[in-house]
Amino acid sequence: MLDAALLHRTVAPPPAALQAPALIECQGLRHTYAARSGPDVVAIEQVDLSIAAGELVCLLGPSGCGKTTLLNMVAGFLPPTAGRLRVGGQDVRGPSPDRGVVFQDYSLFPWLTVQGNVEFGLRMAGVPAGARAATAQHHLTLVGLEAAASRYPFELSGGMKQRVAIARALATDPSVLLMDEPFAALDAMTRASLQAQLLDIQARTRKTVLFVTHNIGEAIVLGSRILVLSARPGRIVEDIRLDGLARPRRRSSPEFNRLYERLAAAIGAEAGE
Ligand SMILES: Nc1ncnc2c1ncn2[C@@H]1O[C@H](COP(=O)(O)OP(=O)(O)OP(=O)(O)O)[C@@H](O)[C@H]1O
């Protein structure tokens, strides 16, 4: 049974002794989109959040609640309208190679080979060719694509493209990996395979991951922690720690199903269902 100790719901934060130093910190965070016509759109509001190094945090919530907005703010693509956002103790002022991003639509450069795509961030950072190639090969091996280094994106399946995108995001050795519905466009089998690969990569690299998904099952399979955002403007209404839930997490287990029902109810309530 998934008991209260296992599902640590942090409406109140955990005791100080349990808190690792925060890598990502949000305080009173808000983002408002200025509308060209009509009222401005407050996408997220009063988000207070602390994510420690090594956590794999899944962000769930009803459509349009502000998940991508929050992820884009951590990436440095969008500024806070109010509040404070720090990564590694520094205020986020724009994108940085220290925060790797993986998008749903792969966003590979079609004119570059797989190797060229993975080397791209290193090239921008001025890393010499030999070191670039070695680092790219290391990360292509990590995602099982070392044999595809000289292919072009159009020669790859969707799952392979997304593995290249993950290798590219990891190549600059970021402290944070930001993933926006990265597996949503993949078929169920490929999706399950990439979920397993991501868990393996995260276990090996201990990267901190913030992962946006619509899919409750995916959040339970992956997360060391699940955050549920309210309907827009998004605020955190559930903060559930799953460190005690054994892996691999089987969809057939009673614990999985109880958690699934709880999250579905929370999201449904927010979506007004
Ligand atoms: N550039 C923009 N200008 C104005 N409004 C925007 C802009 N981008 C997003 N929004 C609005 O902000 C709100 C939050 O959008 P966001 O994409 O962050 O939500 P989401 O939870 O990721 O949605 P989904 O789950 O459907 O992908 C939505 O109401 C959306 O329409």
UniProtKB/TrEMBL annotation:
Keywords for this entry? Answer: ATP-binding, Cell membrane, Membrane, Nucleotide-binding, Transport
**Entry-linked InterPro entries:** AAA+_ATPase (IPR003593), ABC_transporter-like_ATP-bd (IPR003439), ABC_transporter-like_CS (IPR017871), ABC_transporter_ATP-bind (IPR050166), P-loop_NTPase (IPR027417)
Q: Does the keyword Ribosomal protein apply?
A: no
Q: Which domain of life does the UniProt lineage start with?
A: Bacteria
Q: Which residues form the signal peptide?
A: none
- From the UniProt record, list the coiled-coil ranges: none
CDD domains found in the cross-reference section: ABC_NrtD_SsuB_transporters
Q: Which residues form the ABC transporter domain?
A: 29-256
- Provide any one GO MF term from the record: ATP binding
What SUPFAM superfamilies has UniProt attached to this entry? P-loop containing nucleoside triphosphate hydrolases
Respond yes or no to whether keyword Transport is given for this record.
Answer: yes
Which protein family is named in the record? Belongs to the ABC transporter superfamily.
- Entries under PANTHER family matching the protein: ALIPHATIC SULFONATES IMPORT ATP-BINDING PROTEIN SSUB (PTHR42788:SF13), TAURINE IMPORT ATP-BINDING PROTEIN-RELATED (PTHR42788)
Q: What is this protein called?
A: ABC transporter ATP-binding protein
**Species name for this entry?**
Roseateles violae
